Description:
single chain; alpha+beta
Amino acid sequence: MINWHRLFGQALIDLFTNTPYVVELETDLSLQQQFLDIVIIKKTSAASTIALPDGFDNLGDHSLITYKSLREPLNAWAL
């Protein structure tokens, strides 16, 4: 089975190389272990020098991304 979360995260790591952003995968953010699929963190105040894909044009200091396949609904329980 293809691990789509990791594959998407690796593509984002490549995309944000040599930018002021860093991409972290499967970051544990809780007291009870739960993993967030992808975190993009702005490390410097410099502007990005690459053209970002649709939907990534307004990144904040911390951008949280989750991925759900066609078989996994993004519902209140998942959030």
